[in-house]
Amino acid sequence: MAVAFDEMNIPGGDLRPAYQELARWLKETPPEALEYRRQEAELLFRRIGITFAVYGDSESTERLIPFDVIPRIMSGKEWALLEKGLKQRVKALNMFLRDIYHGREILRAEIVPDDLIFQNPVFRPEMNGQQVPHDVYVHIAGIDIIRVDANDFIVLEDNARTPSGVSYMLENREIMMRLFPDLFARHKVAPVERYPDELLSALRSVAPHSASSEPTVALLTPGVYNSAYYEHSFLADKLGIELVEGRDLVVKNNEVFMRTTEGVKRVDVIYRRVDDDFLDPLTFRPDSALGVPGLMSAYAAGNITLANAVGTGIADDKAIYSYMPEIVKFYLGEEPVLKNVQTWRCREPKDLAYVLDNLGDLVVKEVHGSGGYGMLIGPAATKATIEAFREKLKREPEGFIAQPTLALSTCPTCTATGLAPRHVDLRPFVLTGSKHTTIVPGGLTRVALKEGSLVVNSSQGGGTKDTWILDE
Amino acid sequence: MLSRTAENLYWLARYVERAEYLARTIDATLRVTALPAAYIGKTNEWDSALLTAGVATSFYQTYEEANERNVVDYLSFSADNPSSIRNCIEAARLNSRSVRTALTSEMWDTINSAWIELQEVWSKGTSTREELAKFLRFVQETSLRFDGSAYRTMLRNDAYWFSRLGLHLERADNTARILDVKYHVLLPEEEHVGGPLDFYQWSSILRSVSALTAYHWVYRETLKPWLVADLLILNGTLPRSLASCYDNLTRNLDQIGVAYGRQGPAQRHARGIRNRLEHSNMNDIFQHGVHEFIQEFIADNSRLGEIITKQYLI
């Protein structure tokens, strides 16, 4: 495995420019002071109630994501490159979705194979030929980025359904500013606090044509037991919109209304944090108690905007992922700014053969999995695990892709034995409205807290850091 | 506002108020039962505590005897008793999470911190009288802090009014229930049954609605049962009296009616109850029968809860 890129130290002993001030500050700050503030941060998280739920964990239904107080710092120049690549990527994702549900030129050009679309459970035939307001499908994208070198940012995963984590970007900053005002005074950190405003204006800009000039936006949550519920309530609060559950909404004459103490009120845009499957029991899963009966017919009638649109899963599917460089080129005629991780598609016999021969060196992922579940990390797995996985892979090769184990970059992180490098990734959030695409400078940095670990998922021992983009 | 939000705010306030009332009841009962038997007579005060909390039936399905240990446990810590202090706090926290966007950060912080703090009490219980007293005080202080936060930080709009409706409806119910259980010691002298023992009963009743000092300020008299009843039922200056609760309920419902430009059955029903309280005096009530009066009130009050739910919350 390649040597991980150290974001703070240059091999040979020098510091990268973005970290120089932090290094000075760390030298002046005694470790006890750092520990004290770490505890203070934890207390704040608990009191504010910034928790998440781990499914199937009976011991405690609400947990904190560990927060590391050492910020992750990037220069303005690095960010500019990343920003350009992210905008390009999300533009291509939107064009791809529009095409898949309309003309399907990319299939006719034989760039993406038909069966990957039509046999994919996340493809939504209901969306065929359906006009979505302003042709925007992915209003909110969370693109997972890893860094392998000074100028190499690689997309690990596109999240085009209901990406979460943005509340951590905002709350981490809030808490850092409370705990380390002196550290902020010594840096010029680009602010992230306008994210809710940007999100609200993006959502209002895509209101359906039948909406009034002051469209009503609501956030649809599955409810308090959802793992990201805190984020839903946080965002609704910051945006100043109603946080609704399925039972608060009712569809009449193909319009969507919310039940209020003064009778029903029309809703124009729903920022939904409920998966496609549960949105409308009349169209999708009939057993869904989280959805709104009739929502899809109001959608078809063009009276409601759903953000993100229904059926966007086809764009962030792990099987489609490997085609993203071609997708960018096809729609934009440009070289992709952000690279993909090299990916073997197990559905292709040649690739499968290679993967089976090299299981011990590869990461194998389920095409439809998420949250870091159901994957094999070859170098860290026992022989028995690898052999069991081999059987699974042979049985259903089209369900998997494989990638090399990546050397995620490292950042200094507080550990039991002092500061030490830990692997990180980054999820910036890209907003697309009717007119433009915006990205607040920053994102959610996730950090694998265990030494040597590459798994940053919060459900599996990952933590978060505040992400600083220096405004030079 | 969303009906569900209004409903959550309404219930949140009810749960917090109920938790406080339960804590006060236990507190008052502990005081009375600490007295030598000669002063309190043969009544089982722990049994009365269960009755005023409205959980006697479910209690006796699990326990044989109403004694301090069993009743304190059932009213405070039981996960099986849907209206134990524990479950009230749990339900309050759940409701708070559901309506975080409608709460001020002070209100959320009060409930969430109390909930965090009490997790330890739930797992360990209280082993000494001192710990129990501390716990009961903490619950009462949480309610005060919550109420104070709401009063000092909430916008004066429908969210506030719905929360006040829950508070006053619950409060009226609690005061009425304690009267319902203890009415026999409040009967006028010639009829009453317990003799001088009842002095401690009366002060216990007053204590559980935090009105013992108020009594002396209002009447400048020694404790007299009909004055205790007058204070709890008709005196508009005592915040926990039925009259005062209904002054507040009608006012808050009117504010909602004005804001929404529409009156409804809830406003009419609340006004009806308030008028009846306003035009009653203790003589009439005793003539009519205190017990009957209180029972009618409890039914009317819970009817108002149903009407509010139908008109606004679903």
TrEMBL record, chain B:
InterPro entries: ATP-dep_Glu-Cys_Ligase-2, DUF403
Domain DUF403: 1-313
Pfam families according to UniProt: Alpha-E
Protein name: Putative alpha-E superfamily protein
